[in-house]
Amino acid sequence: MRTCFDMNHETYTKTKLPTALRLDSNYRLRFTYKHDAPFSVEHENGKYYLLEGKNLISEVSFVEKPAFYNEKTSDGISMKTIANEIGKTKVSVAYSNECALKDKGLDCKFCNINATKSRFADLQGIAWKTPRQIAETYAKAREEGYESITITGGFVPERREVEYYIDVAEAIQDVTGLADFGGTACVGAPADLSVIEKYKEAGYRAISTNLEIWDENIFKTICPGKDQICGGRQNWINALKREVEVFGKGNVRSFFVAGIEPKSTLLEGIEYLTELGVVAIPLHWTPNPGSELEGHRAPTPEWYMDLYQKTYTLLKKNGLTHLDLYKSANVENSIFDYFYDLDGDHLNIAKHEADRVHFVGEDSVVDDSKIDVVEKTA
Description:
Pfam families: Radical_SAM (PF04055). By secondary structure, the chain is α/β, with parallel strands linked by helices. The protein has two domains: about 35-65, no CATH class; about 65-345, Aldolase class I (TIM Barrel), CATH 3.20.20. Helix content is about 30%, strand content about 20%. It is built from eleven helices and 13 strands. The strands form two sheets. It has a seven-stranded mixed sheet, with helices on both faces. Strands 2-1-5-4-3-13 form a six-stranded antiparallel sheet, with no helix packed on it.
């Protein structure tokens, strides 16, 4: 379901592909389509395997559709258009699948939210979400073990963001009966920083303000709307500082789109924010179809591995734990989760999905003559 972004390298509308797959190590991989990718998912005797060329990487299982995807809200809206699962215990809601920055010609250059709406909204029935729809969907998801919810969306005109988020929080509390509902509010940097306290008062456990780019001049170029509409880069930084004061260390998150600016400046920003107590996470940049940077290429895997290792060192150095990452970020089974696991910082959070993962032994052999190619993945 394309409720916010199309994260594939190439857009497809007629074929339905899995959301994600798991390796035999239980590592979750987003299923990303590219017709000429070197990786493929192939089938033999009821089992599926990930290969690079003809080299077997792992037996894989597909992430199954949550049961709440089959349900409808009280006003008849399919819940799969309201919230998306993003891990064993997390869902994310894009209350708006469009961004008003487009009308001003100020879209972030890497973003394809508006292009995604034009291609998928009518096809998949994606529309604005009401607080009641979100609350009912989340309540149903909790029955399956989904504990955490992130509320996000594009810039929306003619409505104050904070009022909508308060309405959502109140609706969730009313339907679930929970004062602490495991919510993260993903918001833009407000002109009046005092409104940040209202998110906390409404019941959100964590807050996110995504800076995206650290370098000041590149920020102006890549994120013109964030620069011109929200008080400029410094106001975004000031907002993050205030969020830490209100929500506390480890309960504030900021994502970066990694691979557009130099690694040195990005790490400078990550170090600065993690020292403040912000869970600053670089995300792998996919040059999304429909964005102004479509057709560009991200850096090499080695570039990212080095960035992620250095980011993890900064997170650890500044006392940000695995639980901080879990509470604040709408990611799960990310490379940072595995870094924490390797260091012995495990989360005691489990869900039935983990029991469905199939494992393959070290001596498993794939008979190439019996393999059917299913789809190419990046």
